[in-house]
Amino acid sequence: MHKDPKSVLIFGSTGMLGKSLYLESKKRGFETIGASRNGQDASIDLRNKNDIGDLIFKHKPETVINSAALVSHSLCDENPLLANAINAEAVGAMATACNKIKARLLQISTDNYYTGDAAQRHDEKHSITLLSEYAKTKYSGEIFALTCHNSLVIRTNVTGFRSGNTTLSFIEWVIKSLESGKPFKLFNDYYTSTITSSQLASITFDILNHNIIGCLNIACREVTSKLKFVEAFAIEVGLSIAAAESISVHSILSGRAESVGLDVTKAENLLEYQLPNLNQVIKQLVLDYKRTS
């Protein structure tokens, strides 16, 4: 079956990460199709599984990357059927179609699977705990993705800029809070290995040069608390963090994974280079902010 050379279909291409993936794909010379509810090249409702298959069959890409998801924990809790449709069943439709045309499937997943061990780094084989509807549906999405014979699940924690979207990303909320000077709360015991959307996009396309299937962590090589992350960013941009109150995640949230650091050793060995450290992530966030502001 004919496939266009170096062709990539990106679901969720107008989202925070999707935009970065779309730009990176174009920069590297791939024939790129962006699909979302209001896509650059194709409009798609992920609740309609037939439309997902039809779109893949129409373009016959060599690679499908799915960065679309219902990421709001509250919305997932309020509407688990919708969360399952978008985060899991839609991925199953992608996997089925990719198998039929022998395409590669990359599923962008989450790190929201670990709890109770602070700043520990979790590798791809570490046991998981599904505490939230979001985590449950994203893990179901992983299982669906891996039914594709040539598939890779990427676990990550990503932030960046949505640029005009009514829902703020984590770093956009941070900047707004810092600039306002008004009191706000930061978790001192919520640990992540956050990476920027532009860094993740670049590393993802480096991964395409390697024949790897299964599950792979792509994230910052350092694990840090939300508080320490924001402190580092504030120093870099010259903003005061005096209005921030250091609190425990357990004082506000329940039923959430909070020790979600990722061990990226497998990815670094595969790529033969180190993934970004905290300082590199912060500096890239500042560069991305300047480009979007």
Describe the structure.
It is a single chain. The chain has 293 residues and is α/β, with parallel strands linked by helices. The chain has one domain (7-292): Rossmann fold. 41% of the residues lie in helices and 16% in strands. The protein has 10 helices and 13 strands. It has helices at 16-27, 49-59, 73-78, 80-101, 133-145, 170-180, 197-207, 226-237, 265-271, 278-292, and strands spanning 7-11, 31-36, 42-43, 63-66, 104-108, 151-155, 158-159, 184-187, 191-192, 195-196, 214-217, 224-225, 244-247. Strand 1, helix 1 (16-27) and strand 2 (31-36) form a beta-alpha-beta unit. Helix 1 crosses helix 7 and helix 2 packs parallel to helix 4. The protein is globular, with a radius of gyration of 18 Å.
In short:
Helix content is 41%, strand content 16%. By secondary structure, the chain is α/β, with parallel strands linked by helices. The chain has one domain (7-292): NAD(P)-binding Rossmann-like Domain (Rossmann fold).
